[in-house]
Design brief:
mainly alpha
């Protein structure tokens, strides 16, 4: 099953590359909107946060990687560094409502069942640590 998903992702990537979608997105961000490369990176991270509310990391990666990885390379960023940034952003996105995958994990691992329910104050320390790590990665 996973192999078919990867084959479909490669086909999706080839079609997007053949149609010139990466160049169109780069032109939209840099020329039409007038963003700097760092501004483009922030818009990309915000899109990950939005998608992370509803999708898991594999779905986000299969959907957006054909667009964002060539864009990251053309903007002059290191792809390995961007992979680390993507991982941290996914972890932050997993704590956002409406699903909050990591909130259920924290609830399962908490010693007190009532102290860590989705929407409780235990989100703030973990979320602030993740945001600090994200800021230091940038």
């Amino acid at each position: 099953m996973f192999m078919w998903i990867m084959v479909a992702a490669l086909c999706f990537s080839s079609v997007f590359d053949g149609l010139g979608a990466v160049h169109a997105i780069r032109r939209l961000f840099l020329e039409d909107w007038g963003l700097s490369p760092w501004g483009v990176l922030i818009v990309m991270q915000l899109s990950y946060l939005l998608m992370g509310m509803f999708l898991d990391d594999t779905a986000m990666l299969v959907i957006v990687a054909p667009l964002y990885i060539p864009l990251v390379k053309s903007l002059g960023f290191d792809p390995i560094w961007y992979g680390v940034l993507y991982t941290i952003t996914c972890q932050i996105a997993y704590m956002t409502p409406p699903f909050g995958y990591n909130l259920f994990l924290m609830k399962a691992m908490a010693w007190c069942w009532s102290c860590c329910s989705p929407g409780s104050p235990c989100i703030f320390p973990t979320g602030s640590c993740n945001l600090q790590a994200h800021g230091k990665t940038l």
